[in-house]
């Protein structure tokens, strides 16, 4: 709490209640206490309202005894409104049960994600109640740790937990889900488009085992590597530019626009792959010996293009390449070629149509390689153009930090400060509000 | 369990009481990494490289396709005599003489080998019921002769198994073409038209046709019962089902050159019934290039994409020069676009 914050204090230290306590009538005390608390809450709300335009920061302080009345069913919603309008809320001397109840009130009343942090056995209720419970292991024993979702060793590690790991996890999960939809739509939609040419009789365009193993061998490891290892900016920059965390709060990486954008990417990729392969390969001969392509050859070529496209799309979408990413992305493509070679060597009873299709039909024909190159590049071009335009002219916040890092301005503290400040939006809660209040009071004192 | 958050505090390194987890680059996610960024240089370079590769490839492909000489002749309508044209299905199913004479003129010199194809349109060889109607094990070995379950309805006749069974074999294409040039017959080599793996591994050398086309409805051609399946190359070519409803299949090769202006006479037997489903039949003579048959699409598409990339490279160069980027202009960040923020 800063010194120049306005304080709203709610307690039961009024003279009427003192005099009632002397009489000892429980009912009268309870009734009077409740009325007093309600009155103080309403006064507090009025204070908040009258200074609304000024964006002064308020702090609410309430003790355990008053909290018991403030959490009554008919009062708690007003209490919540008052609390949400304040920059800080301090509930002192509250029991473990009250801690849990306050957490539940905020969670259900606000609909936002709550995080609770605590180190003692009295925090267990609160940790369990919140969406994310962070337990601190240490002096007060391990009860908090055992009932928490995440355990840390010191309170100050919370900063790193949220800003670095929270940001990375949000980004990893949202990108992974979007990409997963994309790659399956690309694959499945080509099957659907092929059906239009088989009178919708459900003939698969690819061999059965190709269909089954798509999500196992040829496109799964890059997604897993993305979900586990991807970083947009390193930990140092996450801490240096804390506003990056707002990307998660504002849900910019998993908005409907982004989800539908990735799905659309899948659709048009499938359309381009299918129609380019079909127009290039049929009906004329496709190799020098005059042989014409059948279902196995068209299917094999399209499947190769799909494997290349989804893996290269991954390479275009991420901006963090360790050895692991290289191995899984290029490895998946190589595994496809190895698979089609060795599967083709299995007796024709098992490999049916794919028997020797690669070594005999596909690999020796130059048109296979020429068509693959063409289809893959053409499919990825629209995304590449979009990505180049977006990165240069409309970068998202992490894009801006990547530019900073690239241009070497991260070591210039004034420049970084400028970027940070210009990105903040005015708020009435939290750190920024208190900073604004301090600045305003400084300015006022200077002008006087 | 404690998570692996690194501490930058001063726990004495090497102290035996320290609970600090062992540092490794992998667990601390500080692996050496390459962090590429789409700078203007990379973008323009990529577009230029693509156009430099694609435009010549497109030109080469287009030339290859233009070099291919192709003669296509649709004969299914013209080969039905005029009085029978009102009911073509009845004609084709009847017993009259189906031979037909066609004349083809060679537009450009064609170097050998010249491939002879038959092209069918609106014929769905890729229909699921049709594709499944075969027995691969029966085709390969004699002892699996009775594995005919998948072949219904063309699986047996009066209890005796049909070899080769199934709808694909039953609907074997049976138009024949006899070509001649200047009254000299042109030999059409019908060996080596099927894929080697089919001939040697999928169709057995000691499997002979049995009870073939003996049912009530004749679906297509007959087979010589004295030739083993691995020598029946027409059947092998036919049984490699096509991907799309318009397809060509190799009939044979001509191993002599044809000069420009040569007149080829084709005496064909118009046996195959495509009239019930409005299909088309065409005879195709074509040379090949290193890329295959005649298809301008690939060459033109390569040129188009190469041209687009070159154009994009120019556009991006101009954009990067004209509009210098102002860093840190955050007015379009999502939480600043909506006044007062909010989700």
Automatic annotation (TrEMBL), chain A:
The keyword Nucleotide-binding applies. The chain crosses the membrane at residues 180-197, 209-229, 259-281, 301-320, 327-346, 366-386. It is found in: Membrane. It catalyses: ATP + H2O + phospholipidSide 1 = ADP + phosphate + phospholipidSide 2. It holds the Pfam family PhoLip_ATPase_C. Its EC number is 7.6.2.1. InterPro entries: ATPase_P-typ_TM_dom_sf, HAD-like_sf, HAD_sf, P-type_ATPase_IV, P_typ_ATPase, P_typ_ATPase_c. It comes from the Eukaryota. This is Phospholipid-transporting ATPase.
TrEMBL record, chain B:
Keywords: Membrane, Transmembrane, Transmembrane helix. GO terms for cellular component: endoplasmic reticulum; Golgi apparatus; plasma membrane. Residues 1-23 are annotated as: Disordered. Residues 1-16 have a biased composition (Low complexity). It comes from the Eukaryota. It is found in: Membrane. The chain crosses the membrane at residues 42-64, 300-322. Belongs to the CDC50/LEM3 family. This is ALA-interacting subunit. It comes from Brassica napus (Rape). The lineage of its organism: Eukaryota, Viridiplantae, Streptophyta, Embryophyta, Tracheophyta. The gene is BnaA05g26430D.
């Amino acid at each position: 709490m800063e010194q120049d914050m306005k304080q709203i204090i709610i307690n039961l230290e009024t003279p009427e209640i003192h005099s009632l306590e002397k009489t000892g009538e429980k009912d009268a005390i309870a009734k009077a206490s409740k009325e007093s608390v309600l009155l103080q809450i309403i006064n507090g709300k009025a204070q908040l309202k009258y200074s609304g335009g000024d964006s002064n920061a308020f702090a609410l302080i309430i003790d355990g005894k008053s909290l018991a009345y403030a959490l009554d069913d008919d009062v708690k919603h007003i209490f919540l409104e008052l609390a949400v309008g304040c920059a800080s809320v301090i509930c002192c001397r509250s029991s473990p049960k009250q801690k849990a109840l306050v957490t539940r009130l905020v969670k259900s009343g606000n609909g936002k994600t709550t995080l609770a942090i605590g180190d003692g056995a009295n925090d267990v209720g609160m940790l369990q109640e919140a969406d994310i419970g962070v337990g601190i292991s240490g002096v007060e024993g391990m009860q908090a740790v055992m009932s928490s979702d995440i355990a840390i060793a010191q309170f100050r590690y919370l900063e790193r937990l949220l800003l670095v790991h929270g940001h990375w996890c949000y980004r990893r999960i949202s990108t992974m889900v979007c990409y997963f939809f994309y790659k399956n739509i690309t694959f499945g939609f080509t099957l659907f488009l092929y059906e239009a040419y088989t009178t919708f009789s459900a003939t698969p365009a690819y061999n059965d085992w190709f269909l089954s193993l798509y999500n196992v061998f040829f496109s799964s490891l890059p997604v897993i590597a993305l979900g586990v290892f991807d970083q947009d900016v390193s930990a140092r920059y996450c801490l240096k530019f804390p506003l990056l965390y707002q990307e998660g709060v504002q849900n910019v990486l998993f908005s409907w626009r982004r989800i539908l954008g990735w799905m659309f990417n899948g659709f048009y990729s499938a359309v381009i792959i299918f129609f380019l392969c079909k127009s290039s390969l049929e009906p004329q001969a496709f190799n020098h010996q005059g042989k014409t392509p059948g279902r196995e050859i068209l299917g094999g070529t399209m499947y190769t293009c799909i494997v290349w496209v989804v893996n290269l799309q991954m390479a275009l979408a991420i901006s963090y390449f360790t050895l692991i990413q290289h191995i899984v992305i290029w490895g998946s493509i190589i595994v496809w070629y190895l698979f089609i070679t060795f599967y083709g060597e299995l007796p024709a009873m098992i490999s049916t149509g794919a028997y020797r299709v690669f070594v005999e039909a596909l690999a020796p024909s130059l048109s296979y390689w020429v068509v693959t190159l063409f289809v893959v590049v053409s499919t990825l071009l629209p995304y590449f153009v979009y990505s180049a335009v977006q990165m240069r002219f409309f970068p998202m916040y992490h894009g801006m930090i990547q530019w900073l890092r690239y241009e070497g301005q991260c070591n210039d503290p004034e420049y970084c400060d400028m970027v940070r400040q210009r990105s903040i939006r005015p708020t009435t809660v939290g750190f920024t509000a208190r900073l604004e209040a301090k600045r305003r009071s400084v300015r006022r004192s200077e002008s006087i | 369990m404690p998570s692996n958050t690194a501490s930058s505090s001063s726990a004495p390194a090497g102290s035996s009481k320290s609970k600090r987890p062992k540092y490794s680059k992998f667990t601390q996610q500080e692996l050496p990494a390459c962090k590429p960024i789409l700078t203007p240089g990379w973008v323009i370079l990529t577009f230029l490289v693509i156009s430099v590769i694609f435009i010549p490839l497109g030109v080469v492909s287009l030339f290859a396709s233009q070099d291919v000489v192709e003669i296509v002749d649709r004969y299914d309508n013209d080969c039905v005599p005029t009085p029978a044209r009102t009911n073509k299905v009845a004609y084709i199913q009847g017993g009259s003489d189906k031979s037909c004479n066609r004349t083809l003129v060679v537009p450009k010199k064609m170097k050998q080998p010249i491939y002879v194809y038959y092209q069918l349109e609106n014929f769905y060889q890729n229909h699921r019921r049709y594709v499944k109607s075969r027995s691969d094990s029966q085709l390969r070995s004699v002892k699996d002769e009775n594995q005919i379950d998948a072949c219904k309805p063309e699986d047996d006749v009066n209890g005796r198994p049909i070899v080769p069974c199934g709808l694909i074999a039953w609907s074997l294409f049976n138009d024949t073409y006899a070509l001649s040039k200047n009254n000299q017959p042109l030999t059409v080599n019908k060996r080596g038209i099927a894929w080697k793996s089919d001939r040697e591994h999928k169709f057995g050398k000691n499997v002979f046709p049995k009870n073939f086309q003996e049912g009530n409805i004749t679906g297509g051609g007959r087979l010589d019962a004295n030739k083993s399946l691995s020598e029946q190359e027409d059947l092998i070519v036919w049984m490699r089902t096509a991907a799309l409803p318009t397809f060509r299949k190799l009939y044979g090769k001509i191993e002599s050159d044809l000069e420009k202006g040569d007149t080829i006479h084709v005496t064909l037997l118009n046996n195959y019934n495509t009239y019930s489903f409005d299909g088309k039949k065409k005879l195709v003579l074509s040379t090949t290039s290193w890329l295959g048959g005649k298809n301008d699409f690939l060459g033109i598409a390569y040129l188009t994409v190469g041209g687009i990339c070159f154009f994009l490279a120019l556009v991006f160069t101009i954009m990067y020069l004209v509009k210098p980027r102002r860093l840190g202009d955050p007015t379009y960040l999502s939480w600043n676009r909506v006044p007062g923020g909010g989700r």
